[in-house]
Amino acid sequence: MAETIRVIGDTLPGADLNAPLLEVDDLRVEFQVRGKRVPAVRGASFTLERGRTLAVVGESGSGKSVTSQAVMGILDTPPGHITGGAVRLHGVDLLDKDEETRRTIRGNHIAIVFQDALSALNPLWSVGFQIGELFRVHRGTGRKEARRRAVELLDLVGIPDAANRVGDYPHQFSGGMRQRVMIAMALALDPEVLIADEPTTALDVTVQAQIMRLLKRIQAERNMGLILITHDLGVVADVADDVAVMYAGEVVERAGIREVFKRPAHPYTKALLRAIPRVDAVGRELEVIGGLPPNPASLPSGCPFHPRCFAAEDKCAAEVPPWLEPAENHGSRCHFAQEVYTDER
Questions:
Q1: Is 52 a residue whose pLDDT tops 50?
Q2: Which of 114, 179, 207, 277 has its Cβ near the most Cβ atoms within 10 Å?
Q3: Torsion over CA of 74, 92, 247 and 334, rounded to 10 degrees?
């Protein structure tokens, strides 16, 4: 069924409500560094359905945040350039749209929560003014109505005494409260897709759990598609429905969250799971992944994970691994995906 998505001041024709809510297909991003083209995202692909939560997991430098910026259309160009692939919203490729159209889609259909709320918020304006600005600019509301809506959103995300705190400035909030303000701003225009880029960075464990529960509750209430960018599988274990594991700029495993925890099919995913602290392993040394993530400017031959892989063989250094599916809706970019999946390696 084809339909037109309404956006403020314009329309986006060609939307297909039978298509996935968001589909990232073979996305490629490069950076120009000292005259050299450095690949940051190398063919990332994943799908997000309405009402589901996708966790994009990987170490720092794996391409998670660059992927989210490309999806949002906020990649700094230069030095970053999208060199291939597609980002489809209801089947409509956003990469084919001009900047003016992308601007109307941001906030209205896709919104993002940045990991550093203190840097993302303007220190010169109250949080209520910054939230209300979205309604004034995109909805044409007056200041009084915009302030009322800001209070409602602050209350929604659990800011105590929101009516009195709406006039406070970012520095007057704790780290966890600032992150709640960022979530309120992202939700202001009722987007269909919310991207949370490391939303619990630098927060203590208790506040991390609170933010995760808040995102899960709001996602369920609004039936949004939620993408959680993180380096910690443990943080999203109770929140995510699906997982895309990234390494060296590409998705190396994609599956449901339960399947990933029960039967991971890529050695890197197994290593990430082993590195999660466990309450039943008190007194035992925490497992770590040996070596360092590869330099995107000089990736190793074959499988980029092979220098750190416990299951690597000669072919891993010589041949780029294909995408294999050891089970239905479970894929992995590993020569030995089936063997790793069945715990034979």
A1: yes
A2: 179
A3: -170
Q: In whole angstroms, give the CA distance from residue 51 to residue 222.
A: 8
| Phi, psi values for residue 20, rounded to 5° | -55, 150
pLDDT score for 287:
82
Query: pLDDT digit string (tens) for 174-223?
Result: 999 999 999 999 999 999 999 999 988 778 888 888 999 999 999 999 99
Cis peptide before 304 (omega within 30 of 0): no
Neighbours of 187 (CB within 10 A): 21
- pLDDT of residue 5 exceeding 70, the answer is no
Given the DSSP bridges, would you call strands 10-16 and 242-247 parallel, antiparallel or unpaired? unpaired
- Calculate the alpha carbon distances from 278 to 207, 232, 249, 271 in Å: 19, 13, 28, 14
pLDDT at residue 150, as a whole number: 97
User: Distance between CA atoms of 38 and 297, rounded to whole angstroms?
Assistant: 5
| Mean per-residue pLDDT of the chain | 90
d(CA 139, CA 64): 31
Contact (CB, 8 A) for 179 and 199: yes
Q: Which token pair is 120? A: 């993302």
Residue-wise pLDDT for 91-132, tens only, equals 999 999 999 889 889 999 999 999 888 889 999 999 999 999
Q: Are strands 110-113 and 193-197 parallel, antiparallel or unpaired?
A: parallel
Supply the pTM of this predicted model. Answer: 0.91
